[in-house]
From TrEMBL:
Residues 29-251 form the AB hydrolase-1 domain. Coiled coil: none annotated. This is Putative peptidase S33 family protein. Pfam families: Abhydrolase_6. Residues 1-24 are annotated as: Disordered. It comes from the Bacteria. One of its GO terms (molecular function) is catalytic activity.
Length: 267
């Protein structure tokens, strides 16, 4: 693990070399986690190992304000977060060729935005129950605002620490700092959902993996109808918790896409 300079920040990164697989030297697989209580460990414990063992180089990182990365007071809009990713790829020498982007939840929105603004950097996108269209921005900011108020007034981190639940206390304190002492909520509220016009401009293949009961599935269906090359995979019996509750099916879908011939994942 390392702190890597990226556009004025230090981002906590973890790299896993591919081994024993069929595609040495192929595009690196970059994982993008979700918001607030999430960090690179969510992928480290689920998908990163199997992808690395399949022969793909892997990059995990904590986004700004998350995990062990720097937490500046501003810059949590989608465009700035994507600029962080692009700067990180440059610092690591991964901007000389395209990478595969795998994004969970809000990380999927960042992956899709990257593919739109820097198509030369993206070989393919894999979305895991990502936020795309509709009222999700309003819903998310409302949810985060309620959580912020609860953390601010209940002193929950201190209560957990007093009970000896130190890991939960640290995560809660980090969430409080992010929600109540940065512009994250305001920045997300100022962003706009993707449109069908955005989807039609995508130049790379997209795999969208969603839960059967996910409230975000309608956006994925719109993506599949509008994007030039999009496969929608719906996993039964789960909602927004695909990464943790349908890991095996998700991993099979991801490895099936990454293991495809080179011509099928990049144009």
């Amino acid at each position: 693990m390392a702190l890597t300079p990226a556009g004025g920040l230090r981002l906590h990164t973890q790299r896993l070399p591919g081994h024993g697989g069929p595609r040495p030297g192929g595009p690196t697989v970059v994982f993008l986690h979700g918001l607030v209580m999430d960090n690179l460990s969510s992928f480290y414990c689920t998908l990163a190992g199997p992808v690395s063992r399949a022969g793909h180089d892997v990059l995990l990182y904590d986004q700004r304000g998350h995990g062990r990365s720097d937490r500046p007071p501003t810059g949590y809009d989608r465009a700035t977060s994507v600029a962080d990713l692009i700067a990180l790829l440059g610092s690591l020498g991964l901007d000389r060729g395209p990478v595969h982007l795998v994004g969970n939840s809000y990380g999927g929105a960042l992956a899709l935005h990257t593919a739109l603004v820097r198509p030369d950097l993206v070989a393919s996108v894999v979305l895991i129950d990502a936020h795309l269209t509709g009222d999700w921005i309003d819903d998310m900011t409302d949810t985060l605002s309620v959580a912020a108020l609860g953390l601010e007034h209940r002193a929950l981190a201190g209560q957990l620490a007093a009970l000896g639940r130190r890991k939960e206390a640290r995560l809660t304190a980090a969430a409080d700092a992010l929600l109540n002492h940065t512009t994250l909520i305001e920045d997300i509220a100022a962003d706009a959902p993707f449109t069908p016009g955005d989807f039609t401009r995508l130049r790379c293949p997209v795999l969208a993996v969603y839960g059967q009961h996910s409230e975000l599935l309608s956006g994925a269906r719109q993506l599949a109808l509008s994007a030039p090359d999009c496969e929608l995979c719906v996993l039964p019996g789960v909602g927004h918790t695909v990464l943790n509750e349908a890991t095996e099916g998700l991993c099979d879908a991801l490895l099936g896409r990454l293991g495809a011939p080179a011509g099928a994942v990049a144009r």
